[in-house]
Amino acid sequence: MRKLRKHLLNLALGELVAAFSFLVVFKLYLDLGFASLLAFSFLVLQLIQGVLYWVFRSQSLGKEKSLLMRKTLIVLRRMNLLLAVLVVILLLMLAQNKRDLFFGMLIYVFSVIEYINYYWYRLSYGKSGFNIKLLIQAGLKPSSIHKLLKRK
């Protein structure tokens, strides 16, 4: 149980480091416009939700899963879907130039992939993370959050 808790906390820490790293890289090294900032914000939101989920999972090992957490995840999943639509509309409307639009859309696509990975289908397998060959062989499997939300 202790080893699993440590693994779950490592997943949370990895998501937190990724979110922080993206913010630092964006702020210090990228000179992009508002559309890219909007897409980065959506990506960081996804990563922070991942942090919260993995911390919750580590704290609830061996216990009944919290009804409040399930309801929160349901609300977040719906909110993310609405935000995904809103963000893409705003990206198209507010891009300052083609470069901003290109990078904004690239970051947005990555954010949507993260959303799908968290709330719908597990897209990473094994130690290698995302591997299209393994994904095709194994097929799409429900994500951890999706399984939790399916339980009655």
Describe the structure.
The protein has 152 residues and is mostly helical. It has one domain. 78% of the residues lie in helices and 3% in strands. It has six helices and two strands; from the N terminus they run ααααβαβα. Strands 1-2 form a two-stranded antiparallel ribbon. Helix 1 packs antiparallel against helix 2, helix 2 runs parallel beside helix 4 and helix 3 runs antiparallel to helix 4. The longest helix has 28 residues. The protein is globular and about 50 Å long. The model has no long low-confidence stretch (mean pLDDT 88). It comes from Paenibacillus eucommiae. Keywords: Hydrolase, Membrane, Transmembrane, Transmembrane helix. This is Neutral ceramidase superfamily lipid hydrolase.
Key phrases:
152 residues; mainly alpha; two-stranded antiparallel sheet; 6 helices; globular; Neutral ceramidase superfamily lipid hydrolase; membrane; hydrolase activity
Compact summary:
The chain is mainly alpha-helical and 152 residues long. The chain is 78% helix and 3% strand. The protein has helices spanning 2-29, 34-59, 67-94, 98-119, 132-138, 144-150; strands at 121-122, 141-142.
